[in-house]
Write a structure and sequence with these properties.
The protein is α/β, with parallel strands linked by helices. It has 11 helices and 5 strands; from the N terminus they run E-H-E-H-E-H-H-E-H-H-H-H-H-E-H-H. Strands 2-1-3-4-5 form a 5-stranded mixed β-sheet, sandwiched between helices.
């Protein structure tokens, strides 16, 4: 008997925060994907993309590379970054947050989208602390605070998805944004079909969606 092919997904993040968040959604919503690396540490986008390309060349059908833009933006390397992205294999999808993944968390806590540019984590954290005073990027905090489940309370995820999409559809160079909503939407689609089929159109559709938003 020939078993159905299972579509395989990996998510590569820059550091601890990305790993902790995606590990949370993997467990809480029973998504089928692999987190890489197993022992996360802060790294630059080239390291993240190198790992993504390696995974795509071996066992994975779709690889999300989650990258913060603040350092790239402040080092004035956005053009270089975009050229690098354009050379990635079709199975490797850059997922960008400007300035950082914390903006995605912030969107859970807003009743409407905000069109404002935060150029660094330090700038954004002042706003996030108004909503989550104790927030910090440490393993102990993520382990003890249940922060991810808390921001999803009272329709937080739905707010984040709606706010994110509104910003992506109307964003310009002078506002912050996060493409993590695209990952959530794709994972939901894969969950519906139970990843039984090797859907070769997934990466194409995602890139079309990203291009429409840019």
């Amino acid at each position: 008997m020939k078993w159905p092919t299972r579509f395989s997904i990996a998510i590569v993040g820059e550091g601890l925060t990305e790993w902790e968040y995606f590990d949370y959604i993997r467990i809480s919503r029973r998504y089928l994907f692999t987190l890489k690396p197993e022992l996360p540490k802060h790294s630059d986008y080239k390291t993240v993309f190198k790992k993504g390309k390696d995974l795509a060349s071996k066992a994975y059908d779709l690889v999300f590379c989650v990258v913060d833009m603040d350092t790239i933006y402040n080092d004035r390397k956005v053009s270089e970054f975009e050229k690098f992205c354009n050379k990635l294999p079709k199975k490797v999808i850059p997922i960008i947050s400007m300035p950082c993944i914390e903006f995605w968390f912030y969107l859970h806590l807003l009743n409407q989208p905000i069109f404002r540019l935060y150029t660094s984590y330090e700038e954004l954290i002042h706003q996030l602390h108004k909503k989550i005073p104790s927030y910090e990027k440490t393993k102990q905090y993520f382990y003890s605070s249940n922060v991810f489940s808390k921001i999803e309370m009272d329709g937080g995820l739905e707010k984040a998805l709606k706010n994110s999409q509104a910003i992506l559809l109307n964003k310009s160079n002078d506002c912050s944004y996060s493409e993590i909503s695209l990952v959530i939407q794709q994972l939901e689609k894969c969950k519906e079909c139970k990843q039984k089929n090797k859907c070769i159109e997934c990466s194409d559709k995602l890139k079309i969606s990203k291009n429409k938003n840019n």
